[in-house]
Amino acid sequence: MAGNTIGKIFRVTTFGESHGKSLGCIVDGVPPGLKLKKKDLQKDLNRRKPGKSKYTTKRRENDNIIIMSGIFNNITTGTSIGMLINNNDCRSKDYKNIKNIFRPGHADYTYEKKYGIRDYRGGGRSSARETTMRVAAGAIAKKYLFLKHKIKIRGYLSQIGNIKCDFKNWDIIEKNPFFCPNLLKIKKIEKLICQLKKKGNSIGAKITIIIENIPVGLGEPVFDRLDADLAHSIMSINAVKGIEIGDGFKVINQLGSQHRDEMNKKGFLTNHSGGILGGISTGQNIIINIALKPTSSIKVCGNSIDNNGNEVKIITKGRHDPCVGIRAVPIAEAMTAITIMDHLLRYRSQCYDIL
Amino acid sequence: MAGNTIGKIFRVTTFGESHGKSLGCIVDGVPPGLKLKKKDLQKDLNRRKPGKSKYTTKRRENDNIIIMSGIFNNITTGTSIGMLINNNDCRSKDYKNIKNIFRPGHADYTYEKKYGIRDYRGGGRSSARETTMRVAAGAIAKKYLFLKHKIKIRGYLSQIGNIKCDFKNWDIIEKNPFFCPNLLKIKKIEKLICQLKKKGNSIGAKITIIIENIPVGLGEPVFDRLDADLAHSIMSINAVKGIEIGDGFKVINQLGSQHRDEMNKKGFLTNHSGGILGGISTGQNIIINIALKPTSSIKVCGNSIDNNGNEVKIITKGRHDPCVGIRAVPIAEAMTAITIMDHLLRYRSQCYDIL
Amino acid sequence: MAGNTIGKIFRVTTFGESHGKSLGCIVDGVPPGLKLKKKDLQKDLNRRKPGKSKYTTKRRENDNIIIMSGIFNNITTGTSIGMLINNNDCRSKDYKNIKNIFRPGHADYTYEKKYGIRDYRGGGRSSARETTMRVAAGAIAKKYLFLKHKIKIRGYLSQIGNIKCDFKNWDIIEKNPFFCPNLLKIKKIEKLICQLKKKGNSIGAKITIIIENIPVGLGEPVFDRLDADLAHSIMSINAVKGIEIGDGFKVINQLGSQHRDEMNKKGFLTNHSGGILGGISTGQNIIINIALKPTSSIKVCGNSIDNNGNEVKIITKGRHDPCVGIRAVPIAEAMTAITIMDHLLRYRSQCYDIL
Amino acid sequence: MAGNTIGKIFRVTTFGESHGKSLGCIVDGVPPGLKLKKKDLQKDLNRRKPGKSKYTTKRRENDNIIIMSGIFNNITTGTSIGMLINNNDCRSKDYKNIKNIFRPGHADYTYEKKYGIRDYRGGGRSSARETTMRVAAGAIAKKYLFLKHKIKIRGYLSQIGNIKCDFKNWDIIEKNPFFCPNLLKIKKIEKLICQLKKKGNSIGAKITIIIENIPVGLGEPVFDRLDADLAHSIMSINAVKGIEIGDGFKVINQLGSQHRDEMNKKGFLTNHSGGILGGISTGQNIIINIALKPTSSIKVCGNSIDNNGNEVKIITKGRHDPCVGIRAVPIAEAMTAITIMDHLLRYRSQCYDIL
Predict the structure, then answer these.
(1) Complex confidence, ipTM
(2) pTM of the full predicted structure?
(3) Pick among A10, A21, A28, A79 to test the D interface (most D CBs inside 10 A)
(4) How many cofactors are bound and how (chains A, B, C, D) (predicted)?
(5) Among A301, B268, C98, A117, which Cα is nearest to D36's?
(6) Nearest CA-CA partner of D28 in A14, B128, C131, B214
């Protein structure tokens, strides 16, 4: 059973490899009657796009989205929406040398062992390029959620290496190439990345997602809790190694009297829970922290083996991000939006009578 | 769409409230031909059982498992396995006072708002009592995985409050009531819990799960990666607020050259990835860290509101664990086993030709 | 991947063998706030119950339904509903002789070959006894559909052998043991069945299901059309060999100008389509015809083989219905109700904005 | 919840409207290592293709399939396969007149009422053009099933109007434009269709699908029986109104002693069951009969209403098949193949240990 679909009611199914003809997806379950234009999707795709600044990969893709179906006169019809992005700037030659070699930290070894074959060009299906279609599908969800419920799903870079980027305001985020919410940290980040590029190395990052204006009641206990489904969708993003809801790992050292969110007439007094109790949204902001590992494609020489088990030394060529965490911001927003949208539709289906 | 089922091929569906007649589940997709007796399940249920020591809730339940179907002459037949545990020691009177009040940190508020009705007795469906059937179902998976592949799934308490329990050996774990892997820390934990009980307070915890002898190749990119599905199943456990695979949040501050696991002829040289690359198991140990919040049922007075929005003060009576993290060890093992089992069967279905 | 669950939003999962301790099911996705008592379920269970007349099997089961969860003060809470029926009148000894023999027309051979093991007692999981839980789950759906939408789902015996029972009125149906809608045919049926019992033989039947007051709009093209999902759920009933929607096989010889249902201001002028166009309900009555094969458990001697491939002669003992089609009426109603309920909830989830 | 996906392990998701840019699908769960070229798919697409003879619609589409992903050096990699067919010969102008009118027998009315909007051009998503992607996906399944198990899935026209086409041999079928298995009937069919075209009318048909060399053991009781899943997938084809397995509706008038298939050392003596017992394949040929209604797009004037409820007279223009049943042969083969493939993979996942 393959795993290229996410969501149960709002369903996203994707295909495509890094150096294949195209990347594509089908979004099923989109409510009819939603105004939807190409530019609604292109905006987020451009935020994710490579080659925008000297701080990300130099691969240049216009990531021009083509909507194939499900929309008539710019309105969704309730039928499945097919979308496509063609790959333009593949340099498959760069990858000939890794045809038989497993790059450390990459999925080369596991794909080869699992399937007995792999498309080695640009990492094939395991490439971060796969995430374009997540962003496109997520943009549909984002638009619907905001239009109908004013739900906002936004993220930012909250840490890179040891540089903590405490949140100042949302406006800053779109005005720098790092999705950093704090002007004072931008110079430091620039410096860090330049150093890493010089050394051919990379660094990890933490990003934070905030969901505002979410209604109380989303989430389906006991297994499809909202936090559980968010954990699934976010951990499915390349390079994610940890996820926290609300206080996350800080709870280990908290007392019950500290952690529990008390209430008064006006609502909750605190938000340690991160907006989810018993797997169901409380109506407070949902707060998610995500840890992303450093890019494995670096120019520092490393040890590995080839398909035949022989030991080799390898330097990963190609054009890569020194920190994949940066461009992960729109991707994590998209995955969050897909899951929230799915749960909004699930909520309506069972609880229709009391809405 | 309700969420009481987990797994796609090995499927577990549960029902039951804290103070209802019974808790039950149906496990579908169990391979035929597996020797399975009641005692195989009872062993793990007893590890999770309340009332075993003075350090956990005093509610006394024998948690006697009844297998209703799917087994003939102690061998699984391939048909669905129905199981039941009857509730014996309910004290529903304890909960009359919270009939109209939302206990802080509990799911009372969210269930009421979502469904317009809730079974307030003992927390109803949101009670940790629901996890018994997870343990029963997980025990079937554990048995199969060990018998056929020597896969071991085991957990321990790695931190409680600020007491870190560094791993010594597995034998210790079953010989103390805390699943602590380090004899030197047991006294400290006892003291901490006694203090908390005196104050009517509670504390968070971290637990660690290790999967040994797992074959390379489990996990279904791009959405049903092994890590994503593990994140889902573990985050679906009551009180879990964070999950890490391998180095987890430590990756934020790692360089690519530090994090990536290099290889030589004998295999991987390190295991920063925690045994999963590109969403597929590498064959190394899978390492999972989990953060659990402190019990919200405490005797420290707190502020809340009632069903009508009036402000109230509340002290949570009833019999509760001062640290839910402790008994979560067998539950997290069970959820891990369910997910690994599901992925083993998924792996076989698609990759049968190369096995 | 096992197949003991039906429905995507309204989900029914069952377990249980003919001679096991109990039969049970979990119904997930039931809307909260529905008044539901045991008697709501028992009524349909009694209609299906064996041993009611001399025209069905003599096995006497009270089929007393026990609701274990999901209901609080007789109102559904939105959590999963667990239900149980205990087996009382098993005569497993009757089946010792078929331990190693494949009864012709039964699932003995296929279960043995598929799973390598089978519970031969009473046919195990393949027994019609499994359908009790379908009826119980279906009764929940029926109650909701009628209460909220006045949707009525009713069936009758439309043919048995060569006796055609043209519909007269619904009242007659519940007043004879055959669910026959025509008083003039009852004597003939009684005579037919008495003859068959004397000869130890059995006969096929056709039943008809009518759904009234169904809203326009149910069904999810292109694969989960309402007719496709009805075909699935009804064909999943033991002994069903054919299904028709509307004119069914009669369309082979119809002209387009005869078949298509024209419309005027008041609605459709005819109902050849059987209430479904393009996989979506039209709002007209949905009409389904179902063919059920004759019981394979007969006293006429037949040829078969045993587990070792040796040829044997066999007479099937035990207590059996001379026509399984009769008791299939409440079962087919239940399966229809489950599917309609599932699609009602699906409809709401996607089309909420225009409802 | 939308319904554009079929299958649980071998999963096909489609998109596309009759007059949209393209039709497309994603096939997930294809085993890795299968040799697959464009021509493997094109062959069946050409069999389904419109405009091949004067007996089908004159719309000319080359139905040129483009494989976008999931194949590397002509071998499947285990990742999802994206496929595309561009629409070339749309005459959307032909449909302007039905923009606000519900064509009798079509899905115009139900789509409009369900979604509040519809792409009226060529019937939009409800067009038979949607089935191209079923044929493409089914061709992958067919290739795998034949290569690995010699399973053959083939169909023929068994009746059109009152012309019964009793089976002679498979070779004839591909040599006439009607998939008729009997040379003696071809002239009659030609004559019938010419008459219908002259009158602008249409006719129903029956087609038969035979599955040969299927292993014993496929099918997942109790709900996902092989016959139930076949009924689902086949009833999901446009225009299908009835389905039979084996003797189908003939069983109504059969005795148990006639119907049950007896066995001797060499196997089954008859095949009344149509190759499925208890929802599981017996290893005999699976025999399926399907009834397809006459095309609703005819030139005979009919009564209908428009979007505002006004009564109108309508003649359906455009280019249409006088008998949709003819081109349904490759479509029904494809849907059958998809379901058999899905069940083969399901079978392996649960019963791996005894294979």
Answers:
(1) 0.97
(2) 0.98
(3) A79
(4) Reduced FMN (FMNH(2)).
(5) A117
(6) A14
